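Hi there,

I know you've been waiting on this one. I reran it after we fixed the sequence typo, so this is the corrected version. Both the input and the resulting structure follow.
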Amino acid sequence: MRNGEPLPMADGLVGQVEARRAAWVIVQMIKQGKMAGRAVLLAGPPGTGKTALAVAIARELGEDTPFVAISGSEIYSAELKKTEVLTRAMRSAIGVRLREYRRVYEGMVKKLEVRFDRHPYNPWVQIPVEGVLTLKTTSEERTFTVEGSIVAEMLEKGVSEGDVVWIDEETGRVYKVGRAASAERKFDLASSRTAEMPKGPILKEKEFVRTLTLHELDLMHSRGAIFSLLLGGLEEREISPDVRRSVDEAVKKWVDEGRAELLPGVLFIDDVHMLDIEAFSFLSRAMESDLAPILILASNRGFARIRGTDYEAPHGIPLDLLDRLLIIETRPYTKDEIREIIKIRAAEERVNLDERALELLTEIGAQRSLRYAVQLLTPARIVAERRGSSVVTASDVEEVSKLFVSVKESAAHLKQYEEAFLR
């Protein structure tokens, strides 16, 4: 944006100036807390940047903003109810940033000695049973005898002498910070991060910040210790309303105490016309909830039958829900915009186009479809490489356009040989 106006091309977005201007207004409404009870509908033909616009809105809200994208057809699962799938998607789009203080042992590993013994159930396997660990900071050095589970975690995370670690006093969890800058370097090239030598005492209190989604908290509360150990996760089982209610109460308590903050994210439902009347009713109720993400819907349909009914409506969405949506229209790209998009995609896929090839792809994008033109980029590069050239020419594009037909050509082929196809 420049002076509140979208640029013709910026951050990979091309054209759709009116839609991007409307999206900017949506972002301001979200930041001012004025989106309660409302949602957004992106309506336009296929390949007009609806998904890109939804992603752009989420990015404008901040890099920590959760973004969940699903298709309307994904709710029809054999294992879960439709409303359960939608609930999980909505709660996955709401983040909770937790702050907690933990007592940890922090220092550089000066010495690590491990004693191994036979596995209790497999005498041919050796496991760590205990270790002697020496930690060092700029002002203190201490030696500890540590149990096998902590040693095993350190070995699993590749902790060695010279690494800076944190060890949680209560749980024994180990976090590898990186290689101490003052430690001896074993390799000229290494992937491990460099860390400063810790200062002060080894045992100290540190603040930890981590972000979880409401759905992740639901899963953590719904899994008992026995289930986690013996039966694995409960991902495909429905989560009871009581569990979600207790999670919501806990989160609200943490927010009131200043230990957490909510990060409402974006739930993007593409092909929203695939939802049925039950799912639309659920979304209408969910939009009124205190814990609801920003809901962005997208449809490429005109008038369509509302699934589960005999009624037709614009975009296949019930009129009572449509009345609560802020509708943003996307329009077909102009020829100049198609050219710029193809240039961007060619650069991303490292396809070197000459001018005539670019113009031919632009023509194909305008006459057939932009997606089809973009799909031809990589095949054209492969054909060019076969003849020993690193530059894609118009003849390469023409060759692959004969090998891979567009949707319109495929439909004409079906009509021509209709009798020969199975019904």
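Quick highlight: The two ends are 52 Å apart (CA to CA).

Best,
R. S.
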